[in-house]
TrEMBL record, chain A:
It comes from Gadus morhua (Atlantic cod). Keywords: Cytoplasm, Exosome, Membrane, Nucleus, RNA-binding, rRNA processing, Transmembrane, Transmembrane helix. This is Exosome complex component RRP45. The chain crosses the membrane at residues 20-42, 49-71, 83-102. It comes from the Eukaryota. One of its GO terms (cellular component) is cytoplasmic exosome (RNase complex).
UniProtKB/TrEMBL annotation, chain B:
It comes from the Eukaryota. GO terms for biological process: nuclear mRNA surveillance; poly(A)-dependent snoRNA 3'-end processing; rRNA catabolic process; rRNA processing; U4 snRNA 3'-end processing. Homodimer. Component of the RNA exosome core complex (Exo-9), composed of EXOSC1, EXOSC2, EXOSC3, EXOSC4, EXOSC5, EXOSC6, EXOSC7, EXOSC8 and EXOSC9; within the complex interacts with EXOSC3, EXOSC8, and EXOSC9. The catalytically inactive RNA exosome core complex (Exo-9) associates with the catalytic subunit EXOSC10/RRP6. Exo-9 may associate with DIS3 to form the nucleolar exosome complex, or DIS3L to form the cytoplasmic exosome complex. Keywords: Cytoplasm, DNA-binding, Exosome, Nucleus, Phosphoprotein, rRNA processing. This is Exosome complex component RRP46. Belongs to the RNase PH family. GO terms for cellular component: cytoplasmic exosome (RNase complex); nuclear exosome (RNase complex); nucleolus. InterPro entries: ExoRNase_PH_dom1, ExoRNase_PH_dom2, ExoRNase_PH_dom2_sf, PNPase/RNase_PH_dom_sf, Ribosomal_Su5_D2-typ_SF, RNase_PH. The gene is EXOSC5. Its main location: cytoplasm.
Length: 483, 225
């Protein structure tokens, strides 16, 4: 068991970086002269790494233990190596030390992906992908449009990425950043230019009507590697999507609803999936599926889009890093393994969803909500007890004071002129008070008289006088006629 | 486990709330996040803040609240803008934003699936996200949508088809302390009597939702208390 562990370490070292070669050799040495003690230490070590991931006090203790064991147990050279190791660990709690320990911040190994979870929404073509803490939603929709003149019998694919401010406070609404353009372009190259979707089958009437398939991808949480999550979500949503059936009779094109005719799935030839590699220290270290903190310190990024048949659909290198031919080849080998795993996962998720829909079980986002977490709670349908509701409502209605009466008919100063406000009785409470004050300021000090007076005003026909200072409100009467 | 309770009370009201669920703290980046589910309608909400505010948006005595609604397909339209305003005004009424002057609060609401009563779902998700972010509030709020069918029957928490068939659609935001109406948004024609009826129904229904809020918060902090 212990030997296996060391062998694995050794293998990873050699594959990963020439610098760690020495470490590998020592590992082999240890393998040869191994005792039972090592076994336990290794187990503790592995356990600690698994449980705590990055740097923590318990890890320090673990390394101390290591050191002690090696001092007692082994030769001076090994001891020195561990001393160095320990020193690095204590002094420099950086990501690079984690690489030395062959361990990443979240406890993954260099080639590990984070946990991928694929769930589908209630309607067709809606897919959520969780890649660790990164979360992405894709929604596919379709529309009948006129085709491009250069390709009259091909449907149109349209990709729209949305860096919602929900994902990260750095994303601003409606601003197309460099990252957005990069992701959008990569997604287009991955899915449109690889011709994975049969666009000719989307043609309804050649040169007149074709289906436009629109893919909207929303980033919900940004924790690194948005591209991989986006490509998985987009291709899964496209494979899940069903477009309405159309019938052509002469010149008439009829779109049938889902009740009338079963909707049709898109024909997908292959599933290209993007795998991202990040490089550190001029390509010395290589990581698969970088998280957000790793992305911040990386020197270069290589994105390889590949399908299950090991056909490369696109390669993009960014960050201005010089890569060797071997590195690219190694990355493509890793990508082929990862892609086949992810494709299987998508196929499984699609199958589960199909089964659930067939059995008439509930599906969608509401069903994918975890039940066991304490942050989540679900209530069954509840009834609200109602008593004397009608009575209560009518009581309120009756109890309300009737608002002041409005003038029954609008005043028309001249035919063809509408007017708002002037000459009418004002029903606004505030204005009323002002009105009253004005009246009080005048000759009549008593309120009762005011009321009387207002009553008179309402009944009596007053001449319409428009008092206005501004030119805009001036009423121009073209054909003055007395009413 | 799922049971459907369709109870028509003697008054002729079909007063049921669909099953609802909520998950808090499900996104790692925002300061507070929640997803709220009413039947098939589901909304994801995220809150950032109190954070630095742009000088142009700074208000000297309180926090600037910005509400963004993200549709599933395409760009937000006028309808979303008006919904944003409804939500913002409700939140401003309940948040104690004067405790964080010259700072920004951002609420982002993402539609995950629309099956009716979307505005009330926005409000509920927003309240849960504010609670998760730990922002000071004078009261909690919830949203209740009532649809008045063509025969005068009042349906609470309607589905999309029920909304389409209805004569009028009323959404109220109710506060938790006095069950008063914080915001109302209505569509269609209805009488004064019906309006009062719907307010009374919403106030009663709000108690159930606040009870749910209480239970979910209790559950959430059950291990820390």
């Amino acid at each position: 068991m212990c030997q296996w562990w060391w062998m694995l370490n050794f293998y990873v070292c050699i594959v990963d970086s020439p610098f760690l070669w020495v470490y590998g050799v020592i590992c082999i040495q240890l393998c040869v002269c191994d005792g039972l003690l090592h076994f336990y230490v290794c187990m503790v070590d592995a356990l600690c790494l698994c449980v705590y991931g990055g740097c923590s006090i318990s890890m320090c203790v673990c390394w101390m233990l290591h050191l002690y064991v090696f001092i007692v147990d082994c030769s001076i050279s090994v001891c020195l190596w561990w001393m160095l190791y320990f020193y690095l660990f204590m002094v420099d709690h950086s990501i690079y030390v984690c690489f030395l320990c062959l361990q990443r911040l979240d406890g993954r190994q260099t080639y590990d992906y984070r946990k991928i979870k694929i769930t589908f929404g209630t309607d067709y073509g809606c897919c959520f992908v969780d890649l660790g803490k990164t979360r992405v939603m894709a929604q596919v929709s379709c529309e009948l449009v006129t085709p491009k003149e250069s390709r009259p019998n091909e449907g149109i694919m349209f990709f729209n990425l949305e860096l919602s401010p929900m994902a990260s406070p750095a994303f601003e609404l409606g601003r197309s950043s460099e990252l957005l353009v990069k992701l959008n372009r990569q997604l287009e190259r991955c899915l449109r230019n690889s011709r994975c979707i049969d666009t000719e089958s989307l043609c309804v009437v050649s040169g007149e009507k074709v289906w436009q398939i629109r893919v909207d991808v929303h980033m919900l949480n940004h924790d690194g590697n948005l591209m991989d999550a986006t490509s998985i979500a987009a291709i899964a949503a496209l494979s899940h999507f069903k477009r309405p059936d159309v019938g052509i009779q002469g010149d008439v094109v009829t779109v049938y609803s889902a009740q009338e005719r079963d909707p049709i799935a898109l024909s997908i030839y292959h599933m290209p999936i993007c795998v991202s590699f990040s490089f550190f220290q001029q390509g010395t270290y290589l990581l698969v599926d970088p998280c957000e903190r790793e992305e911040r310190v990386m020197d270069g990024l290589l994105m390889i889009a590949m399908n299950k048949h090991r056909e490369i659909c696109s390669i993009q290198s960014s960050g201005g890093i010089m890569l060797l031919k071997e590195q690219v080849l190694r990355c493509s080998k890793i990508a082929s393994v990862k892609v086949s795993e992810i494709t299987d996962l998508i196929a499984k998720a699609l199958e589960n969803d199909k089964k659930a829909r067939k059995e008439g079980r509930k599906c969608g986002f509401a069903e994918s909500m975890p039940q066991e977490r304490i942050t989540a709670l679900k209530n069954l349908e509840t009834t609200v007890e109602m008593t004397d509701l009608t009575k209560q409502a009518s009581d309120i209605v009756e109890g309300v004071e009737t608002p002041a009466e409005m003038a029954l008919s609008p005043v028309v100063p001249a035919p063809g002129v509408g007017q708002v406000g002037a000459g009418l009785q004002n029903a606004w409470g505030l204005e009323d008070e002002e009105d009253e004050e004005e009246e009080v300021d005048g000759d009549e000090p008593e309120v009762t008289i005011v009321a009387e007076k207002r009553g008179n005003k309402k009944k009596g026909e007053r001449p319409v006088v428009i008092i206005s200072d501004s030119e805009e409100e001036e009423v121009v009467i073209l054909n003055p006629e007395s009413s | 486990l799922r049971t459907t309770m369709e109870v028509c009370s003697s008054d002729g009201f079909n007063v049921t709330l669909r099953e609802f669920g909520c998950e808090q703290c499900l996104l790692s980046r925002p300061d507070g996040s929640s997803s709220f589910i009413q039947g098939d309608t589901s909304v994801l909400a995220a809150v950032y803040g109190p954070a630095e505010v742009k000088v142009s948006k700074e208000i000297y005595d309180r926090a600037t609240l910005e509400v963004v609604i993200q549709t599933k397909v395409g760009l937000p339209s006028v309808k979303e803008r008006s919904q944003e305003q409804c939500v913002r005004e409700t939140c401003e009424a309940s948040l104690l934003s004067s405790l964080h002057p010259r700072s920004s609060l951002t609420l982002i609401l993402q539609v995950l699936h629309n099956d009716g009563s979307l505005l009330s779902c926005f409000l509920n998700a927003a309240c849960m996200a504010f609670m998760d972010a730990g922002l000071p509030m004078s009261c909690l709020f919830c949203g209740v949508t009532c649809a008045i069918a063509s025969d005068g029957q009042v349906i609470t928490d309607p589905t999309a088809t029920q909304e389409k068939e209805s004569r009028a659609l009323l959404t109220f935001a109710i506060d938790s302390t006095e069950q008063k109406v914080l915001m109302s948004s209505t569509k269609g024609s209805f009488s004064v009597h019906e309006l009062q009826e719907c307010i009374a129904i919403s106030q009663m229904a709000s108690e159930k939702i606040f009870q749910f809020y209480r239970e979910s918060v209790q559950r959430r902090y059950s291990k820390t208390l």
